Amino acid sequence: MTVPNYNNYPENVGVLAMEMYFPKRCVIQSEMETFDGVSAGKYTIGLGQDKMAFIDDREDIQSICLTAVQNLMEKHNISYSDIGRLEVGTETIIDKSKAVKTCLMTLFTEQGNTEVEGIDTTNACYGGFAAFSNAVNWIESSSWDGRYAIVVAGDLALYASGAARPTSGAGVVAMLIGKDAPIVVERGLRSTHMEHAYDFYKPDMHSEYPVVDGKFSNTCYIRAFDSCYRRYMARLAKLENKDKPSMDDIDYVVCHSPYAKLVNKSFARASYNDFLLDTDNEKFAALKPFEEMSYADSLENKDLERALMGLTKAGYAQKVGPAAYAPKQIGNMYTAAVWAGLASLVSEVDSETLQDKRIMLYSYGSGLAASMISFRVRGSTAEIKSKLNLRERLDARTHSKPEEFASAMKMRENTHNACNFNPSGSLDNIATGVYYVEKIDDKWRRFYKRKD
Predict the structure, then answer these.
(1) Dihedrals phi, psi of 14, to nearest 5 degrees
(2) How high is the pLDDT of residue 9?
(3) Which residue positions form the known binding site?
(4) Which of 7, 43, 103, 214 is deepest in the core (most CB within 10 A)?
(5) For residues 188 and 239, is the Cβ–Cβ distance under 8 A?
(6) Is the pLDDT of residue 346 over 90?
(7) Can you tell me the distance from the alpha carbon of 451 to that of 54, in angstroms, rounded to the nearest whole number?
(8) Is residue 5 over pLDDT 80?
């Protein structure tokens, strides 16, 4: 690697490569509706989800991250010695002290590289974005030694039996970050909103399951989106000398996706914010009856929500639809969800079409923390798309019955935090090249193998 010039920013810092890991097994959401005895469409239309990935006791956060990093390195022929920073964003905690990143270091030490900065970052689903920011900031700082960074965002999204369980899922996205990237972070276009809220949290160390106030969490998500969007647009107005910037200045939108319908609603809210800045614009005529509505009421009003959803239906299909594909097929992935959306966008839209397009990305983590940035596509994304091979890999998964999903969840419940333990999940459910938990000894030390 070349020695960096500290007198100038490295040019075109962003995403050079992406890899995504998701479990071999999934369950079809329409079958889950029947199994759970709920009305048809509750999960598929109400949540907007198609399928849901799941794992048993053979995989954990460290094994799935090992798989994602190893595959990233192999598929893109990256040398371990060329990595100077490794950042992990996750909220799936299996140890209160030892970082997931330290386990991933086994891959690097085997290749003789122990000089790798970075640790884990945790704040619900926001940790992956924070890890990404840390990596970008490192490359643009005097700390940078000229090497690449890797960002790993991944989680097991697990819920107790009940209303939230259909929003489960599992997945990891690993990204190579550096200069001269095809997917470039736009400088000066960044906004953040943070506050204290008990919308989703994990206070019980004896359980993998969170405490969730679903309705409140949705409101927090939308409110944080509004705040980030308004601040982002104010900066866009200043940067590009625009009088009334709007969603018309954005080509594609990637949002954190707990479930697809919430992304749909947040995209619709962008038009409400645009309307408030341009109330006399004829294209917002359908929103005129809501001009005097208070902001607090706007968050709850179903008539406004329906008007916004109708107004933005075509825009959603064009600007959000490509990024929604993979999350709808996998389910929630917590920190990985928003980056799975970016991977999906790159996979669903060809490189030529993406050139010079602006991609807005919104990350939300309960508790709460949210940020919005944008990317410009400045180079070919064809290789990323080809090596992700998302559609083919998603279609190749095993479609399991809801009973198998329930059994896997029960297996995890019964063995949570176990030691001196050998997992009983079948290795038939582990794909070739995937790391799995071989055993946990009497000191809670975990040992992994890669399936040949």
Answers:
(1) 175, -145
(2) 80
(3) 217, 261, 265
(4) 43
(5) yes
(6) yes
(7) 18
(8) no
Quote the CA–CA distance of 193 and 258 in Å, as a whole number. 18
- Please enumerate, as own/partner, the contacts of 113-118 that have beta carbons within 8 Å and a separation of 24 or more: 113/80, 113/81, 113/83, 115/84, 116/83, 116/84, 116/85, 116/86, 117/84, 117/85, 117/86, 117/143, 118/85, 118/86, 118/87, 118/88, 118/149
What's the mean per-residue pLDDT of the chain?
96
Q: Which residues touch 174 (CB under 8 Å, ≥6 apart)?
A: 18, 19, 20, 21, 65, 68, 69, 71, 72, 150, 151, 152, 153
This model's pTM is above 0.85: yes
**Res 77 pLDDT > 80:** yes
In whole angstroms, how far apart are CA 79 and each of 20, 108, 144? Answer: 19, 10, 18
Residue with the larger pLDDT of the pair 161 and 338: 338
Evaluate if residue 137 carries a pLDDT over 90: yes
Q: What is the pLDDT of residue 1?
A: 54
Amino acid at 161: S
The token pair that represents 58 in the structure block: 């053979």
Within 8 A by CB and 6+ apart from 33, the residues are: 39, 40, 41, 42, 43, 44
| Alpha-carbon distance values, 213 to 175, 198, 227, 255 (Å) | 32, 8, 21, 20
For the stretch 162-207, pLDDT in tens is 889 999 999 999 999 999 999 999 999 999 999 999 999 999 989 9
Residue of 128, 199, 175, 116 lying closest to 366 (CA atoms): 199
The candidate with the shortest Cα–Cα distance to 272, out of 310, 317, 243, is: 310
Residue pair 76/176 in contact by the 8 Å Cβ criterion = yes
Identity (one letter) of the amino acid at 249? D
Q: How far apart are CA 377 and CA 187, in angstroms?
A: 13
Neighbours of 364 (CB within 10 A): 30
Q: Read off the amino acid at residue 70.
A: Q
Place of tokens 């509004």: 226
Q: Which residues are annotated as a binding site for CoA?
A: 217, 261, 265
Structure tokens at 138: 């490192």
pLDDT(2) > 80: no
Q: Concatenated DSSP letters for 246-312?
A: -GGG-SEEEE--SSHHHHHHHHHHHHHHHHHH-TT-GGGGGGGGGTT--HHHHTT-HHHHHHHHHHT
CATH 3.40.50.1100 fits 14-450, yes or no: no
Asked whether the predicted pLDDT for residue 335 surpasses 50, the reply is yes
